[in-house]
Amino acid sequence: MQIDDTKEPQQLYDTSGITSYGVKVLWLLFTLFIFYGALIPFNFVFDNDLIADKIRNFNWVPFVRADGSRHSIPDIVQNVLFFIPFGFLGVLSFAKNKFFAVFLVTFFGFIISLNIEILQLLTENRNTTVTDLVCNTIGGAIGAVAAFILFGIFCLLMKSASFQRTFNNKFYYLFVFSFLVIAASSLQPFDFTLDVGAVWDNVKGVMENPGQLTISFTDEFVVGFHFFLFAVVTALWLRSINNVLWPIAGILLSASVGVFFELAQFIVSSRSPSIQDLIVVLLGCFSGGVFALIVPKKMPPVIWIVPMIVITLMTAAIQTLAPFEMRLAHLSMGMVPFLSYYESSTFTAIANFLEGMITYIPLGFVLQYAISRRRSAFILIVMIVAVLAYGLEYAQGWIEGRYPDITDVIGAVIGAVIAGSLCLRWSRVFEQDKPTLKEVSEKTLVT
To answer: Any residues with CB less than 8 A from the CB of 84 and at least 6 apart, and which?
Structure first.
């Protein structure tokens, strides 16, 4: 599509889609998750003496414990981060007057946090603190302001015809989407640290054992698979903008991104870069760039379904069933979502949940694109991903050191649904020239 610079720039991207129904649903679901995560395991006790004792010992000074000691810095950071998505999604949910929405969403965050702290008075193992209330409100405000600023910048840029030309490219959107997926995969659980001592310990660990090669593989196949797809999309994007050396440039660009994120793990407390991971990343990028050479410009998306299901199952099985040591009796699955995560730290819980989401995101995108570009396809996608994830999770009951939990199945489904939603938006922005599974079936029946 050519754009005439002499005319008014064509709005190829409808910014109202950012405030679509899906964003509002995500905001509502995240709000419910806040209540769920803050009150689990729901040990409510209506004991007047216990409530009175909590009220008597309540500390009205923020960031200071009842005994006078300083409140835990990690707890403060976690409470702030916990409400940032609430503020961000909240502002995007308002179609008009986003400046006013910043104050309204911040106020909503304060009210929600206040209600949670009051409800925690009725629980046996939760403590009500003014620090949590302040941190949650600050987190909601940060997310709201960030959404307001970023949305304004985006709308301003979209008035530029040249910027719209950049966005008028299917593979550019896929490149950005893939970039965000591998960023989350490489940096989760996002427990960043600027402590020089902690960073130096990571550096010394790599220097003392630079090889760090093992015969044990868990999430390396997932990482390699994601960088393989990222390299394919990067190369195809460069091909679409007529880059002469697009296969080589795709490999170099994706590999550079991979090296950057691997080195960035020096400032992630719970992670550390390794030569083994770097080799997996580079191999994934190289194979993806080479594979892009045989991808035709027009190919029915249905061809991707079976390979994506098989590869996703293989990578997820290695990630969830390693080290494949069988136990004598099958362990039953935990059926209360996030109950087992309650005993872990916030960052550990986020890491485990994100792993399941990220693993199934490529499959969810491909299924949505291939099956149908309608919302009705969500039901089928949820069923397919739920069956695959539940089967692997159930198999964990036979593996020593593994504990099956319905939370991981929920994470897989959520990842697939989010990817499907992005695929729908992507499909509506651009005119599709590839037949869906439904269109192929109808054409076959007519023939």
So the answer is: 139, 140, 142, 143, 146
Burial class, 250, CB count within 10 angstroms (exposed 0-12 / middle 13-18 / buried 19+): buried
Tokens of 121: 């008075």
* Boundary of a domain, candidates 273, 297, 321: 297
Q: Are residues 82 and 97 in the same domain?
A: yes
User: Is 326 inside any structural domain?
Assistant: yes
**C-alpha pair distances (Å), 339 with each of 78, 121, 216, 332:** 18, 20, 29, 14
Among residues 186, 168, 302, 289, the alpha carbon closest in space to that of 228 is found at 289
Asked if residue 7 belongs to a domain, the reply is no
Domain total for the chain? Answer: 3
Query: Is 283 contained in some domain?
Result: yes
Task: Tell me, yes or no, whether 96 and 44 share the same domain.
Answer: yes
pLDDT digit string, tens, across residues 117-159: 888 888 877 777 888 889 999 999 999 999 999 888 877 776 7
Report the alpha-carbon distance of residue 165 to residue 383 in Å, rounded.
38
In a domain, 4, yes or no: no
Where in the sequence is the domain holding 383, given as residue range(s)? Answer: 300-439
Closest CA to 323 of 212, 412, 226, 215: 215
What residues contact residue 382 under an 8 Å CB cut-off, 6+ apart? 413, 416, 417
Same domain, yes or no, for 142 and 180? no
Q: Are residues 127 and 238 in the same domain?
A: no
In this structure, are 291 and 305 located in the same domain? no
Query: Nearest 10 degrees: CA dihedral of 216, 221, 223, 225?
Result: 170
Of 25-34, 77-86, 193-202, 390-399, the poorest mean pLDDT is in 193-202
